[in-house]
Amino acid sequence: MSKSAPPAPQAFEPAFIAGLKSIFEEKIVFNQVLGLKITSLAPDGVVGRIDMKPDLVGHYAYNRIHGGVISAGLDAMGGLAVMAAIGAKHLDEPPEQRLHRFAKLGTIDLRIDYLRPGIGSHFELRAQVLRLGSRVATTRMEFLGPDGQIMSAGAAAYIVS
């Protein structure tokens, strides 16, 4: 007996993507302060990016991203991954109704492992949901340098009810 592959996750409608980007990048002011932008939004995972500004002479070598920014960015991306998973779970609802489901989303546990110094011109942040329950979701996150090397890894739990 052969196993069949699981069905591919259904893509989101443009209205849902636009609404989620608006919430994440514009309405959550702290994400603006971090410079956190969504680059990929799918039911099975999300990707974001933070661009550093060069120093006064145009170099990035001495621009280190603070551990608090790494932690906050990974936490935000974990929350975004949960939003995407909830949105995918309720595809039978209109996009506007699904976007209102995120009002009570909150972090209940966060762990970050700092593996390398955060030096670079830009960083990629990835997150995926490991489990979406009726009350709690768990996620895994990664913070990657410009060369694609993992610099920090995280895991978090979020309240979803």
TrEMBL record:
GO terms for molecular function: thiolester hydrolase activity. Residues 63-148 form the Thioesterase domain. Pfam families: 4HBT. This is Thioesterase. InterPro entries: HotDog_dom_sf (IPR029069), Thioestr_dom (IPR006683).
